[in-house]
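Bug #2210: token dump truncated for Glycosyltransferases?
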Amino acid sequence: MASIRRTLSQVYQDRSYQNGVASAQAHKLFSTNNNSGKYSSWTSTSAAAAASVYLRRKGFRRSFYRCTIFFILGLLLGIFPFGQVDNDINKHDFSFEMKPPDVNVQLDTKDNFALAAVSLGVEKTTPQLDRFSRFDYAERKQVIVITPTYNRALQAYFLNRLGQVLRLVQPPLLWIVVEMTSASAETAEILRKTGVMYRHLVCVNKNNTNVKDRGVHQRNAGLEHIERHRLDGIVYFADDDNVYSLELFESLRNISHFGTWPVAMLAQSKNKAIVEGPVCNASQVIGWHTNEKSKRLRRFHVDMSGFAFNSTILWDPKRWNRPFSNPIRQLDTVKEGFQETTFIEQVVEDESQMESVPPSCSRILNWHLHLDAHGLVYPRGWLLQKNLEVVQPIT
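Reproduced locally. Full output below:
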């Protein structure tokens, strides 16, 4: 019998597929269909569709594999830094060392550091970094102000005036206000409105029968509070009826052990001023200003608002080599006017341990004025209900 070989049609011979896989499958499918003799043009269409589906799946897999490989490569490149810029940043990481070629440092009048530019090897591209180009590296000591107060006609005026001065002092500052017997709501309201960090204390002393010793017990209550809580800073006794300059509180931060300065006092007759305090040569105390009319022999002629000291003297005697560990307090058993000198004798031994504030004691930084109105009656609730209904007879 003669064998007849049937070849593919010209249409399928000219069509080519990638890797020849789809062509072979289509050829096989077409041959099978021709042998059976039961398929028509639908067979060729289905073969082409099957080949197209196969190519789509294969192309999707290839694209997925490529994307996965590129993603992994990008992740690895991001994890492992390289290049000159990154190495330069790593050298300066967590370093505050200032080098002249890279940093331009300027000092202003308030002892603050202003950094004009800081270069870490990376150029500044955003203008928002200018807000962070100013840093303050000067560590300020805390100023602890102890103020005794009591109910009287001008108490609100005195506390508000002192509070506004302390509000202008750069932090940290702690204002310890001490009252006798109980804390008044009026005093608490004034302290809240000043905006100063404060602590409102009450001195309860049943044995206190002398009005002159009132301030002594109140200051001792503030000292006890500092010692109990181990507050670190410069302690200063500031009465509410004195006048203080802002420069005084800023100068207190320069004290390391004990500092003193002259205080101008208005005489009782109010016709002249008296200076009381140290006579200084540079930073050394070499003598004292005394009142010619005073016959009191004191070791240190200092006003209560004319000295300040380090608070660690109260609760860390080993640091200052104190021979005894008794608490440092003001004494109410001494005569009036001797509270200052007896207290200072517990803190320092002589003038060699004192520091002048400011240098050479060249300026008067606070005034002790006798302006309290003793004839006025303390109004209840600090409010005069009928202060405009006064009838004065004609003489």
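Output looks complete on our side. The two ends are 164 Å apart (CA to CA). Marking as cannot-reproduce; reopen if the truncation happens again.
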